[in-house]
Amino acid sequence: MKKALKLALLHMDVGHKQVEANRARLVELAGRAAGREAKIILAPELAVSGYSFSGPREVTPFAETARGPTAAALAEVARRFGVFIAFGLAEKDAAGAILHNSALVLGPDGKTACIYRKINAESRWACPGDPVQDNTFETPWGRVGLLICSDTYYGLMPRITALRGADLLLVPANWPITGIDPQELWSARALENGFALAACNRTGIDRTMDCRKAPSVICDNRGRTLAASMGPGSRIVMHDLPLDANGRLESSRRKKLLAARRPEHYHGCYLDLRPVKDLTSFFDLPPAGRLNLLAVVPSQSRHPAEALNLELAAKAPVPETLCLVPVLDEPAPELETLEATTARWQVAACACTIQGGLRRLHLFRNGRLDSNWTLPAWPLGEGDSLPRFDFGPARITLAPMAALRHPEPALAASKQGCDLAIAIEPEISAGDRLLAGARTIENLAIAACGRNLAGIWQPPEGHRRWAEDLAEPGQACRLTLDTGRTRQKRFQDRVDFRTLLAASFNG
After folding, report:
1. What's this model's pTM, rounded to 2 decimal places?
2. Active-site residue, from 39, 45, 91, 192
3. CA 258 – CA 167 distance, rounded (Å)
4. Residue 501 lies in a domain
5. Using H for helix, E for strand and C for coil, what is the string for 431-455?
6. Are 434 and 457 in contact (CB under 8 A)?
7. Would you call 17 a catalytic residue per the annotation?
8. Is 149 a catalytic residue?
9. Is 279 inside a domain boundary?
10. Is residue 306 annotated as part of the catalytic site, yes or no?
11. CATH of the domain at 94
């Protein structure tokens, strides 16, 4: 029989300011889950107080310390059944002077195993947590990490948790579906870090939020959904997470992903751009404007360069169009076709050839070969760097999809003024499609082109999902990128950069 770790998510209907009722429901659900042999039990964010408060004065009567009545009641459950219980609460320090949106983990002995204070905290009342706080704790099955809700929105906090050795990430959440679907984002975070992820949302109606369709989800370390639930009414979501032959959380995929990192290339991640009012002049970027992108996926019977010529003939391009085609099958004749095509239609085209394991990128502009780059192998070696060039109103970086599967290269490029990253591959996988979309959260547009799929992804507006235009074989996708938007960058800068940029990681 395969070994497994039984997880339980307490998908609770949390009443706003109904502390006594919420606490009773939380303790009752935790006891039921423990009675069904769950070993790790996870409850939502702010599971006792509810979520929406106008300021410190309003939330203070509903806050409690980490040794308060909720912790005491749940500690009894943890001791009685020998389980771990994680839950969110509005926490006040012993003096009542500082308030945090916190998550508390109680161990099987009833003692505190971890306290994590949300870093991407509620601006109206919560003090942000310390970026270097240790958000991990040990269990008999391996190291487990803890983040709260929107701390998983940007890529670096989950990545740092993986670097601290977590092979399971717990996420107490209060995330209604009003824009991006958190289930999609949580899948991306599990996929790119190689850890399993359990996110426990709440249900019901808060003062300002309708969470009846908010999802709770358990993903494996490839981002695949193992269990999910949504809907009105409290419920327990349970799942057996597979363990390795030694009864431990599977860690080989996380370690392999992290071993491919090259922190010496990620120093752009720590740049603080908040004082910079005009990125265009600060980085000497091309003046902002509109860039027209076209990516073509040939049918099986056509070569990429031929497919591009037919697409341009069917729909004439607008000026300053940058075209992408997948890796060329027959480099010499297809490069000649691209040269002629760009001359005929007065466009630019970016193509890729692979010969002898060497990947070269070629940029044609209006009938002439403008630039050639040798794309370094991934992981990058000492002295390597990803090529960058200016085209029209955009600064563009060229990257293999292997680089864009990690959050750091995209963020570093974005913080150094890039508007767009281009990846040209033999194929684009479903996971690549998901991660390309997730990369746009770092304020960088992504365009990727393969023989099976092409896509162009734009950064989200507000809390909406990223925009994407996709093409399958025999199709093309088009998008106009406004680099005025990609210059308006906002980042999560409360980050433990020392852990992110360390030469080694917690294996």
Report:
1. 0.96
2. 45
3. 12
4. no
5. HHHHHHHHHHHHCCEEEEECCCCEE
6. no
7. no
8. yes
9. yes
10. no
11. 3.60.110.10
